[in-house]
Amino acid sequence: MRTERGRRATKLLALTLGLAAIAGGLAGCAAPAADHVTTLNFFQFKGEATADFDRIIAEFEAENPDIRIVQNQVADSETLIRTLLVKDRAPDIITLNANGNFGKLAEAGVFHDFSNDPVLQTIAQAPRDIMANLGSAPGEVNGLGYVNNANGIVYNREIFAQQGLQVPTTYEELIAVCEKLKAAGITPFASGMADNWTVMPSWNGLGAYAAQGGFFDEMRAAGEHVGQDGNVSFSEAFPQAMTEQAQLFSYSQDGYRGAKYDDQTALFAHGGAAMMLQGIWSLSPVRKINPDVDAGIFPYPSPEGADKSVLVSGVDVAVTLPKTSAHHEEAMRFVDFLFRPDVNERFAAAQTMFPTVVGARIGDDPVLQSVAPYFEAGRITGFIDHQVPTAVPLTGIVQSAVLAGEPTGALQTLDNEWRKVAARSSLGGK
Q1: Parallel, antiparallel, or unpaired for β 93-96 and 67-73?
Q2: Radius of gyration of the chain from Cα atoms?
Q3: What is this structure's pTM?
Q4: Taking all residues of the chain, what is their mean pLDDT, rounded to a whole number?
Q5: What is the C-alpha to C-alpha distance for residues 401 and 414, in angstroms, rounded to an integer?
Q6: Which of 270, 344, 364, 388 could form a disulfide with 360 if both were Cys (CB 3.0 to 4.6 A apart)?
Q7: Beta bridge mates, 94
């Protein structure tokens, strides 16, 4: 077993090697080569997308022989990009996961403003709204959503068909499905709570409805007075969502509290459970075990009925540029190429994700098609945990609520933690 000191040393070595690799790439773009080819550093965070980006780069270079793209796929991208920005060694083109940390960087004013770039108008409004809600420099658009994921209830379509079950559109119908599966001797949900983050997809899905209508704007405005003098609070808005979340986990397999994420996906892959409280990302490990699994996704049902349901979706890959660059024009040519509908469409299909560009077609994979109408109608909303300050220990609090099966104490803790963070900060961001 590695010691904590060993883990720190390993992380330091990885960071050093990553910086060295990127520095090498940056050195190549210090000046145009003798043959007038400009080399650009492409900072790329998503390991499983390396081959797909290689193909895109090859296509781009064939059409733009005066530009060479060097892809640097990095681990621990959030640490590395901060280090590079601080050292004034920003890559020419950057991809990052669109989360609260991206929003913090954007608010710091380190990224290019795309407000007046034509490429912005090629992106559908819903992904643009998701990016805006993460945070940006005042009056700017600092990132472009490239592909979206889907956070919903993953289900085995074959099991549903065998049991004569329809996709539920209300919470009552979802519980009825769980009861019918139990009566047939089938575990409703494959779960794993040893990895505490696995409680968050369902919290995002069920809580999205409680957070509509500017809930987090009101929370930030209330600041350290959340829950006091009639102000908005988690305790007031989230009891139903978190009660339902605990109830859904109670339909999991025996021993789910000690099971890991890999155990969860393996159980589902082998047909040992009919559903998962997860998202589209979970099907990658499932399909490695069982490539033939017939799966789909449906949204967490709205308390107001099927016509009010929305699909929680995050921007899985955000594209941005540094605020200043010696090769901004060349980098924008690559960005424009990335957001061509045909290029965006192929990348999204290969990654089992949803394209963001208007006119790009959603892939034929049944998983994508199962929720395609929500994307086509713009009925998507962002991950609400991105709106909670990182100083609030959200994941642990939510996990405790699920384990206890009762949300009151956890909700009071969330309110208290929010107030503490607000008292020592402006709480204007995530």
Answers
A1: unpaired
A2: 22
A3: 0.85
A4: 91
A5: 11
A6: 344
A7: 43, 320
Task: Return the amino acid letter for 210.
Answer: A
- Please check whether residue 190 is in contact with residue 252, taking contact to mean a CB–CB distance below 8 angstroms: yes
Tokens of 174: 């979802």
Which residue type sits at 16? T
CB of 164 within 8 A of CB of 274?
Answer: no
Q: CA 209, CA 301: separation in Å to the nearest integer?
A: 9
Which tens digit of pLDDT belongs to each residue from 154-177?
A: 999 999 999 999 999 999 999 999
Question: Which strands, in side-by-side order, build the sheet including 354-355?
Answer: 67-73, 38-44, 93-96, 315-320, 144-148, 354-355
Residue 220 carries which side chain, given as an amino acid letter? Answer: R
| Residue type (1 letter), 383 | F
How many angstroms separate the CA atoms of 428 and 386, rounded? 13
Domains of the chain: 4-142+315-362 (3.40.190.10), 151-313+384-423 (3.40.190.10)
Residue identified by tokens 């394209």 is 355
Name the residue with tokens 């459970």: 273
CA separation for the pair 71, 65 (Å, rounded): 16
pLDDT digits over 22-78, tens only? Answer: 444 444 444 444 468 999 999 999 999 999 999 999 999 999 999 999 999 988 899
Buried b (16+ CB within 10 A) or exposed e, 334-361: bbebbbbeebbbbbbbbbbbbbbbeebe
| pLDDT tens per residue, range 115-156 | 999 999 999 999 999 999 999 999 999 999 999 999 999 999
Q: How many residues does the chain have?
A: 430
Q: Can you give the chain as a three-state secondary structure string? A: CCCHHHHHHHHHHHHHHHHHHHHHHHHHCCCCCCCCCEEEEEEECCHHHHHHHHHHHHHHHHHCCCEEEEEEECCCHHHHHHHHHHCCCCCCEEEECCCHHHHHHHHCCCECCCCCCHHHHHECHHHHHHHHHHCCCCCCCCCEEEEECCEEEEEEHHHHHHCCCCCCCCHHHHHHHHHHHHHCCCEEEECCCCCHHHHHHHHHHHHHHHCCCCHHHHHHHHHHHCCCCCCCCHHHHCHHHHHHHHHHHCCECCCHHHCCHHHHHHHHHCCCEEEEEEEHHHHHHHHHHCCCCCEEEECCCCCCCHHHCCEECCEEEEEECECCCCCHHHHHHHHHHHCCHHHHHHHHHHCCCEECECCCCCCCCHHHHHHHHHHHCCCEECCHHHHCCCCCCHHHHHHHHHHHCCCHHHHHHHHHHHHHHHHCCCCCCC
